[in-house]
Design goal:
Layout lengths: L1 H9 L7 H32 L1 E19 L6 E4 L3 E13 L4 E12 L2 E4 L11 E18 L8 E15 L8 E16 L4 E12 L1 E2 L1 H7 L5 E15 L2 E14 L7 E15 L1
Antiparallel strand pairs: 1-2, 1-3, 1-13, 3-4, 4-6, 5-6, 6-7, 7-8, 8-9, 8-10, 9-11, 11-12, 12-13
Helix pairs in contact: 1-2
């Protein structure tokens, strides 16, 4: 309707006086302003239709790590006992009326007080112990879709991000301190029950190891590139409004070729219980 009005005003005879021309231009400007105002109101209504959310979670956990580093004399293996860990998680998202979702987040797991016998790692005398730190970091963005209008409808996200996996040691050890970097991809399906009181989510995870620290590349005699295969599953329980408990498992096997017969392997498992505040 507004466009028709603009065309009608603009098509007035050009023989009119300057006053009519000014009036015509004023009407065109007013109509254009009206179009802009309508578009702005529509955009504000669309923005009001979007719902924002945020999560902050922290909690204790337990982890285990199995590492194999190949050498000319034979592979060096590290197998830890279950060790205490700390789990941190951040997540923010927006949800539109039509069911489209967009989340961003970060996950961090790290060991606390991980000690292993030095005789399995170093050439030191047996009986001494070395302090290690194992950690995983993932930063990601996840577009998704909700299959229904209800908040309890199933949701599917495609998580794409970047992972950093590391092992640091205090002292000289045969297994070198290293960091692994690469993109990751995980489809994640979420089911909610009991009006939001319980939700289950999970999915398989793939990673491409593109970069490794210089120490590990030198020992492997290769570029350090490889792949990772894993999964994450979680169960969320609502305690009160805005407070949830999340039982989360994340595990991954990372493998990279070497110049020796064996391949580099890094297997990590994390199990944590997080307290989450949700807004």
């Amino acid at each position: 309707m507004t466009r028709l009005f603009i065309r009608t005003v603009a098509s007035c005879p050009r023989r009119s006086s300057w006053a009519l021309r000014v009036a015509r231009l004023s009407l065109v400007a007013a109509a254009a302003g009206l179009c802009f105002g309508v578009a702005r109101v529509q955009s504000q209504e669309a923005a009001e239709g979007a719902r924002l959310s945020a999560r902050v979670g922290v909690g204790p956990g337990v982890g285990v790590r199995f590492i194999t580093v190949p050498e000319q004399a034979g592979p060096v293996e590290l197998s830890t006992k279950p060790f205490p860990a700390l789990d941190l998680a951040l997540r923010a998202g927006v949800q539109w009326r039509r069911g489209f979702l967009l989340d961003v987040g970060a996950d961090y797991q790290t060991s606390i007080g991980l000690h292993v016998a030095s005789s399995t790692l170093t050439r030191a005398t047996s009986g001494t112990r070395s302090l290690l730190r194992a950690s995983d970091v993932r930063v990601w963005v996840a577009p998704g879709f909700r299959a229904g209008r209800s908040d309890s409808s199933p949701r599917l996200h495609l998580i794409a991000g970047w992972m950093v996996r590391g092992l640091q040691a205090v002292g000289e050890v045969v297994v070198p301190a290293y960091m692994l970097h690469g993109p990751l991809l995980r489809p994640e399906l979420t089911w909610t029950f009991g009006g939001g009181a319980i939700s289950l989510r999970g999915g398989p995870e793939l990673a491409w190891i593109m970069f490794a620290s210089h120490e590990l590349r030198d020992q492997l005699g290769s570029t350090g590139s490889g792949f990772g295969v894993g999964a994450e599953v979680a169960a969320d329980f609502r305690v009160t409004s805005g407070l949830y408990l999340s039982l989360v498992y994340h595990g991954m096997l990372v493998r990279a070729p070497s110049q020796w017969d064996a391949s580099f392997k890094d297997v990590g498992h994390w199990l944590s219980l997080r307290a989450e505040l949700r807004y």
